[in-house]
Structure formats: structure tokens, C-alpha cells
Recover the amino acids of this structure.
């Protein structure tokens, strides 16, 4: 065998090993992703992951999905991942998924379920995510929320106090809040 033929054989074997390793990693990643799904999504196809969607009407929205799955029926189901100690979905998660739903439907024309999943994982290495099924807001509710936010920011409407004191410590308006004994404590 010529010297060049030997180098080619080594290169081909090396390339085959690299490709086999890459396939093994992709297979492992696919298995890990499938194992992280809630039972209801086991037969679904992952169609979007970390993807940005935009619409300009009826309101401007930009939404980045964590994941979207296509069910055998063709319906898309959205999934949002959260890492936090509190193992529950929050209203902000529902708002986020609802805006994502509206943006996906507006940009793609695809049907998206009126429910989604919030996968909550505790911030520890061994914790597994726990799925929480949530009912999403309607498009009309999302539009009303966007318009209310615009009105508050423009000074055309007054903000409302939070439903829970837990919102106060992270509120951007905490230092200017005039709600006595609630947000300042």
C-alpha cells in the first residue's frame, strides 16, 4: 500500500469514529429529551426548541419558546421550563405561554393547544422536572394585558397592587411604592 493510501485509510477510519461518536451523542441527547417529557407528550414530535416567533397584529409580540411538540392530531403543545424552589406554575408562566401561543399561531398559522405545560425543576443537580398542566389565556385576554401594560407605562392607567406580598421584593417599583406596609416590608 502506498504511503498516501495509508493516510487515507487512517483519515477514513478517524472520520467514521468521529461520526459514530456524534451520532451516539445525538442519540443520547434525544433519549434525554424524550425522558424529560411528561407522559402526555410521549408520542409527540419535538418541532420547535428555543425558537423566536414574532407578530405585529393585533398587538406586537416577540416570544421565545422553550419547546413545542406536535401531537399525532397535528395540534402543537407548548412547554416552558423553569428552575426554582417553588414547585408550582405562576401566573407569569401562564402569561408567557399564552403570548407564545398567540405568536406561534400568528406567525405560522398552525393550531396551538389552549393548554400547555410548565416543567418546574428544583435548582439541584439530581432534581427532575415536574410537569404542571396549565390552561392558557385567550388571545383577547393577552391583547387586553398588552394594552393595559402600554397604558400603565404611558401613564394613562394606574398600576394595581400585587395579589401577593411575594411579588413585592422583586417589583421594579418597590422603592416608589405608596402602598403602606405591604411592599416596603
Amino acid at each position: 500500500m502506498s504511503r498516501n493510501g495509508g493516510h487515507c485509510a487512517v483519515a477514513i477510519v478517524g472520520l467514521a469514529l468521529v461520526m459514530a461518536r456524534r451520532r451516539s451523542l445525538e442519540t443520547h441527547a434525544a433519549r434525554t429529551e424524550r425522558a424529560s417529557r411528561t407522559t402526555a407528550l410521549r408520542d409527540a414530535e419535538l418541532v420547535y426548541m428555543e425558537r423566536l416567533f414574532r407578530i405585529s397584529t393585533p398587538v406586537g409580540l416577540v416570544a421565545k419558546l422553550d419547546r413545542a411538540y406536535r401531537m399525532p392530531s397535528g395540534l402543537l403543545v407548548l412547554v416552558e421550563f423553569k428552575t426554582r424552589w417553588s414547585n408550582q406554575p405562576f401566573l407569569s408562566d401562564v402569561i408567557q405561554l399564552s403570548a407564545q401561543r398567540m405568536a406561534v399561531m400568528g406567525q405560522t398559522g398552525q393550531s396551538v393547544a389552549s393548554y400547555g405545560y410548565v416543567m418546574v425543576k428544583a435548582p439541584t443537580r439530581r432534581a427532575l422536572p415536574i410537569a404542571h398542566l396549565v390552561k392558557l389565556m385567550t388571545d383577547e385576554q393577552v391583547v387586553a394585558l398588552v394594552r393595559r401594560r402600554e397604558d400603565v407605562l404611558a401613564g394613562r392607567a394606574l398600576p394595581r397592587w400585587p395579589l401577593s406580598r411575594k411579588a413585592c421584593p422583586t417589583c421594579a417599583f418597590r422603592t416608589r411604592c405608596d402602598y403602606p406596609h405591604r411592599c416596603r416590608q
Summary: Residues 33-154 form a domain with the Trna Endonuclease; Chain: A, domain 1 fold (CATH 3.40.1350).
